[in-house]
Every structure is written in structure tokens, then in C-alpha cells.
Amino acid sequence: METSPTPELEEIQHFLVSRPAALAARYEFLTFRTPASGRKWLAGLIDKVGTAKAVHPTRLDSRWVTIAFTSNGLRALGVDEDALATFPEEFRQGMAARADILGATGTNHPDNWRGGMGSDDLHAVIILFACDDKERERCRVEHEKYLTQHEGVEVLSTLDLGAIPSKRSGAHEHFGYRDRLSVPAIEGMGDEPTPGSGKRIKAGEFFLGYPDEEGEGPALPRPEVLSNNGSYIAYMRLEEHVGAFRDFLKQHGKTKDEQELVAAKLMGRWRSGAPLVLSPDKDDPELGGDMQRNNDFNYKEMDPHGYGCPLGAHIRRMNPRDTAVNMERRRMIRRGGTYGPALPEDAPEDGVERGIAAFIGCASLVRQFEFAMNVWMNDKTFHELGNEHDPICGTQDGSFDFTIPKRPVRKKIKGLPQFSTLRGGAYFFLPAIKGLRYLSELETS
């Protein structure tokens, strides 16, 4: 049996491989007014970019930054048109141009995005990781000072992220659900898949230049020194309407227990992380926090009709497991966190933006990310449901339903409100270290 090549961890940026011990981060979205200024800025930061070999979940220092570029950003640094033409069309067009494919309509449309997202001037993102808010502020000041030395590199917008204080264990988002529960294991990285998470996935499904689940993988964009060991990442800034979400639960649940059940049906898990397939009638926080058990289930045999986890629940849409084909070719790696202050319990909506800002990493934006958005999240006929979108993150305009299968009569909630709004998005390329050096040393012809 032929052995797949081991990923070059000393070259690959850590972002999709290992989470640092960070409770805070800052996203800074940049534009390059001249190629020379952008290259000089990049050259001085490469040694601070964390690699998959160096970064570990139990260690954090200020060297750990991540840098990625849009197609326009690569052009702004001096990558020529012939080389850019070898990159996939969806990356070159950018997320805003593909809004219809993604289902980003209505209030989610790019015309309503914030922070320069969707603008041709968006060239790069730098992610500053920090152990806490105080360290994030130090990183902000340090990079602000660094930018004063590079006239022509300007900040379009920024976003500060931080963990939400919670009585529950583990990371949680603003609706209260436990996060980071389903992560694919990558072949050659040394990590073991948790029970129920499927087999290790070929590295070529996430990093360019490696065999994927179908063989050797596609040809690398040119030049190979730029694209090898790189990944595509889709950025999404999702505002979460916490007050509206809580009002909905109260409308459809007379007691706290009934409200928690409705919340679980929407997600497919209790807010502790316990899956409905394994615990359909009541929450089980111990199960929710046990990574050896909280993914150990399937749908086809254990819950074929959705009596536990509804067919249209968020986790059943975004990871259909054994009820979909070719799943190894659809897996992605999500990174990111929460932004904005937590809304106190029982407080009304306060008009302050809060939500999740995430990057989704893959080797093919169209086959992995866009497929998930188009077919799983925003296809109203998913699982032959007829008129539903993803209840948590899907595009909603008050005309879609949510079905809760039940014996003897199922429950259909009509006119589901919008719980999340897309406030920005973009497609980036995440080069490896050699790729970053190549970009920093380009010369404009």
C-alpha cells in the first residue's frame, strides 16, 4: 500500500492545523496602495508567522500571526495575470461576486456588508493571536506602530474577538451552544479521529500539493513555490441576533425545559454539546463535554426519520454523515471565534453587533465551501423538506419553515425569523512560508 507524503509542517501556516492557546484575537483587513509597500510590510512579518510545526495548543507567544491574501491582493503585490489565471475562477472572482451561488441574498447581500468586505481594495488579512484582551491590545499597538513604517499599507477595517464568559465548560458562541466539537483528522498530522468522526482525511483535501481522496490532486496554480502547501479560506462574519433567538424560544416553549428542547432541535445538539441522536429527551452535559462520545453517532441507522435530530437541523445539514455521499470530499476546517459583548440573560436586544467571525479552510472553494452553502445550508429542498433553510445560519426572510418530526404528528414552525445575518465575507489564499517569501521578493515588471 502506497504511503501518502507527510505534510511539511515547517512550511504550512498553523492556522488550519493547530489552535494556539489564545482566548483573544484581532483581524485586520488591509489594502496595499503600492506593490513595494505591501512586499516590504510582508517581508518584516514572515518570521512572526506561526507554522504548524511550531504552534501548539498549550503554548502561545506573540510570534504567532497568520497572513492571507485575496486574488486582488496577490495582484497588488505583483503576481502577474498569467499566474493568477491558473488559480480557480471562484477564488479570482471573490465571495461577493458569487453571492447568488452562496444564497447571500436580502440582508445578507454584499451591498449590506461592512468593513470593506467585497471591495476590490481588500487585499489581505492579518490575524493577531493573544492569550487575553490585554495581550491583544499590546499586539494591536505593536502592529499599528509597524504600519507607520510602511506608508501605502492601510487598514480598511478591524475586528476584535474574545471568548465569551460562560458557566458552561468549553468554548461557546452567543446563542449559548458549545462550539468546536466536530473537527476532521488529517492524514499525516498524527492526530486520531474521535469516535464517529470518520476516517483520517487526505491532506490534499485541505492543503495544495498533496494527494486528495480521489488521487494525486489537481495541478498546482503557478508558480508552484507560491501555491504549494497553501490553502483557500472563506471568511464569514455572522451577526447573531441573540434577543430575537431568545424571544423565539419563549414563543415556542412554555417552560425553560421546553425552550431548551426547541433550541436543541434547531441545532441538533443541546447547548451543552450533547447530540440529540444520543440524548433525544433531555440534556446530558457530561456527554456534551466528552470528545470520545459526543460525535459517536450516525443518522441512517440511529435516527433515520429525524425523531431525535430533525432532518433540517443545523448539524445534520452541515455534516450529513452517513446520509450523504462523497463526504470525505466535503469536509472543511473552521477557525475563528466570537466577537462583541455577551447579551446578559433576560436582557432585550440592545442593538450592539455580536456574533461569530470564522474562516473555513479547504483545497477547493467550489467543491467544499460553496457546495455546503448552496446545497446544504440554503437549499430549501434539502432532505426533501420542501421549504427550509438552515435554521441557525441560513438565509431567512420569514417565508421558510422548520419541521420537527414527531409521533403521531410532526410539528411545523412557519415563518422562521432570521437569527444570523452575514455582515461580511471574502475568499483568501493562505500561502505557506516559502510562498510568503516569494511574494515578499517579487519585482514589478
Structural class: alpha+beta
Tell me about the largest β-sheet. Answer: 4 strands, antiparallel
Helix % is 10-25%
Percent in strands: 15-25%
Outline the low-pLDDT stretches: none
Quaternary structure annotation: single chain
Mean pLDDT: 94
Q: Judging from the principal axes of the Cα atoms, what is the shape?
A: globular
Count of DSSP-assigned helices: 13
Radius of gyration: 22 Å
Amino- and carboxy-terminal Cα gap:
47 Å
Descriptive key words:
four-stranded antiparallel beta sheet, 10 strands, single chain, alpha+beta, 16% strand, 445 residues, 23% helix, 13 helices
What would a concise description of this structure say?
By secondary structure, the chain is an alpha+beta fold. 23% of the residues lie in helices and 16% in strands.
Structural summary, described in words:
The protein is α+β, with helices and mostly antiparallel strands. The protein has a domain at 14-167 and 184-237 and 426-440. 23% of the residues lie in helices and 16% in strands. It is built from 13 helices and ten strands. The strands form three sheets. The chain has a four-stranded antiparallel β-sheet. The chain has a four-stranded antiparallel β-sheet with strand order 6-7-5-10. A hairpin with a 6-residue loop joins strand 8 and strand 9. The longest helix is centred in the N-terminal third of the chain and has 15 residues, at 133-147. The N and C termini lie far apart (47 Å). The mean pLDDT is 94.
